[in-house]
Amino acid sequence: MARLGGHSSAKYTTGTLLGSSAGRGWDGLLAERWRNSPGDLGEVEIRDTEVIVMIRGNLRIRRRGDGKLEHCHAVPGTVWLCPDGVREDMIRLYGEVRESIHLFLPASPLSATALGEIGVDPARVGLHYEGGFRDPLIERIAWAIRAEMLDPAPAGNMLVETLARALGVHILRHHSNLKPASAPLPTVRGALDPRRLRRVVDFMDAHLGEELTIERLAKEACLSPFHFARAFKAATGTAPHRYVTVRRIDRARTLIAGGTLSLAGIAAACGFTSQAHFTRSFKRFVGATPGEYRGACGGAADPREVSCGSATMNLATERQGDVLIVGVSGRIDAAGGEAIREAIGETDRAVLLDLEGLAHMGSTGLRAILLIAKDLANRDARLVLCALPAPIRRVFGITGFERLLPIHETRADALASLAGCRGGAQAP
Q: Whole-angstrom Cα distance, residue 250 to residue 259?
């Protein structure tokens, strides 16, 4: 598929790029988030097909493309469509666009093959240059893609593929020169039969740790990507991206209960991009974090190893109620501090940092602990330390940290200090 490039600063001369999906591996769609100050934008010839949805702002906008002049009062949800090949020689903003999302599709929003499958001659398709209108479906798709940009989901790329195709069909039906009757929604030739469905599900299970796409799954079903998602949903009642996510969560639950892998290893084995991403998704589906679920299954502490320059930090976590216990050996630096912060759940009211195995504590490690304490205090939670080796205790005394953070001789003492204690400490 041709690479989608957007317009960058050539068109949005008063703008600031807030975010882009470039490099995310999305197939058939590029998304950008922009903020634009008042003024005139650049003159460009549109490449690709651009769909713009206002997210935040309230202003008047005038634009002209191929001699057609449009003006509107734009509010959140206002949509503009810019087909490939149109030359825009005037866009004037009479106020600030605080945020808009720009969705770039191929010049034809559906491939020639897909158009042929719904009985449309690609040579006859012409999209309208129009703007200043509301379209609830386009708006919902834009918000869904924006959410994926800001907080990626486990099967996000597959979701975006599905949304891109849905957007292409919708534009073709409602914003082109074709009569609605000549561009019906694609019909399913039939739900996947049990044999093909089993083959697709087996393929999913064998590749849960990899990036799965609609195209890869459609190939297993011997269907075009255009028809696969509908045929799959007709057979299972669930969209492919959600089905994959559920299989990943189910696999993670099995691995957690087995107790042989760290949570970071389970996240990677099940196709999650990070342990933090895994924690959010798991809690959304299961109602508990992976650490809480492991505790409910009777699992032991979760061991992991974090690279700290030429050395390593070993980290073991376990929970007792809403207290997270973190045992540290080796050394703490910025990477180690980030690993501890990732392990902390939103429901943890306190973190007990057991430093008995700590071999070295430098200024970077001290700053990492300070940031953790501030993060916890900001949400009315606490950080307490215990079992500091004598050299580390001296460092804390010299720097004044001993006066800022509760430090206990043993883990039992620290837990006793937290028993029945609610609320957070003052941030250092």
A: 15
